[in-house]
């Protein structure tokens, strides 16, 4: 899911935007770039719910907890409004 939303650029189908969204990821195109919409909230809450479930079912084992926390941060940080259109270390710039 991360690759689909945060690395794939362009539109999955023909749109009348005349190439405006060609350099944007799918996450940046959701709801025309508006922040805090219901679909964005749902897609941001679902990893947190999975994180809580995996932490509970692994009985908060320290090794699993570190891996789960790193995974959660790698999924949630790109979704923040401050990272809209930002390319960290030039990755996925073109």
UniProtKB/TrEMBL annotation:
Keywords annotated in UniProt = Membrane, Transmembrane, Transmembrane helix
Give the record's GO CC terms.
endoplasmic reticulum membrane
Subcellular localization, as worded in the UniProt entry: Membrane
Note the InterPro entries from the entry. ORMDL
Asked if the keyword Transmembrane belongs to this entry, the reply reads yes
| Topological relation to the membrane, as annotated | Multi-pass membrane protein
For the biological process aspect of GO, one term held by this record is: sphingolipid metabolic process
Chief localization class? membrane
Role this protein plays? Plays an essential role in the homeostatic regulation of sphingolipid de novo biosynthesis by modulating the activity of the serine palmitoyltransferase (SPT) in response to ceramide levels. When complexed to SPT, the binding of ceramides to its N-terminus stabilizes a conformation that block SPT substrate entry, hence preventing SPT catalytic activity. Through this mechanism, maintains ceramide levels at sufficient concentrations for the production of complex sphingolipids, but which prevents the accumulation of ceramides to levels that trigger apoptosis.
**Similarity-based family:** Belongs to the ORM family.
Quaternary structure note: Ceramide-sensitive subunit of the serine palmitoyltransferase (SPT) complex, which is also composed of SPTLC1, SPTLC2/3 and SPTSSA/B.
- Put simply, this protein is called ORML2 protein
Please name the gene that encodes this protein: Ormdl2
